[in-house]
Amino acid sequence: SIAILLYLARKFKTPDHWYPSDLQKRARVDEYLSWQHVNIRGKGSKLFLTKVLLPLLTGQPLPPEKLEGVTEELNVVLKQFEEKFLQDKPFIAGSEISLADLVALVELMQPVGAGYDLFEERPKLAEWRRRVEEAVGKPLFQEAHEGILNTKNL
Prior knowledge:
Glutathione S-transferase Yfyf (Class Pi), Chain A, domain 2, 0% strand, 7 helices, GST_Theta, mainly alpha, EC 2.5.1.18, transferase
């Protein structure tokens, strides 16, 4: 939950880059955290549900046209994410990682776990992912995403 993340950042006085005290940087973080619910989270989760969970629950294969529509919806918000939030910056709020980057990448890993490599044809997005992974630490990143990345084995 976004509320819990913000609470933890404040309570434990995390390093400033996670939830910046600079008002403009904080506004960028807040803007993304508000936008992502119905965009990145909404469309990424929809793809995951449609491609992985519904076929598991119903035992029926997914109609290709259904998957195409859901994938296109995700592609639209990915383009908006790159153009509006990443622009030409290393991270969403500027030169350092923030909670916005962490939340964004976690949400984007759901479609990846469903077998849709959304980074493959998006070099800007792939490079941003690499920076976020490096900032968090690759072993921790892999551990945190182990469950979602293994769902395709269901």
